[in-house]
Design goal:
It is built from three helices and three strands, in the order ααβββα. Helix content is about 50%, strand content about 25%. The chain has one domain.
Length: about 120
């Protein structure tokens, strides 16, 4: 009798553990997306080349993430999105976004080379 109950309960417990592990992984992806967006937004606010900022974001973001950049006259917004499929239990997404104000010297239209001390 106990063997039959164990055989019924064990798959439910395994499925619950897989689901919980998936939730933890998506939570970690969320943190990585926010960190990646923050890194890229800070880099672009300092007037680093966009390729450098996107490289930073892709390195910090979960594998397979997408990165988008929206610029305005005084700010830059970076959004990083990731999707993860959890063992047939569905696909979960994580998105992080960060906005940074452009540095004053560069926001006014000056190029970074004009302020080089070297």
């Amino acid at each position: 009798m106990a063997t039959a109950e164990f055989a019924i309960v064990l798959p439910v417990i395994v499925a619950l553990l897989v689901w919980l592990l998936g939730a933890v992984l998506v939570g970690l992806d969320q943190v990585r997306c926010v960190d990646a967006a923050r890194l890229a937004a800070r880099s672009l606010a300092r007037a680093d080349p966009e390729s450098t900022a996107l490289g930073l974001a892709r390195t910090a973001a979960p594998p397979g993430s997408s990165v988008s950049v929206v610029r305005s006259a005084t700010t830059v917004t970076v959004t990083v999105s990731s999707h993860r499929s959890i063992g047939g239990l569905g696909s979960w997404g994580a998105t992080g976004s960060a906005t940074a104000a452009l540095e004053q010297a560069f926001a006014a239209g000056s190029s970074p080379e004009e302020f080089d001390d070297g």
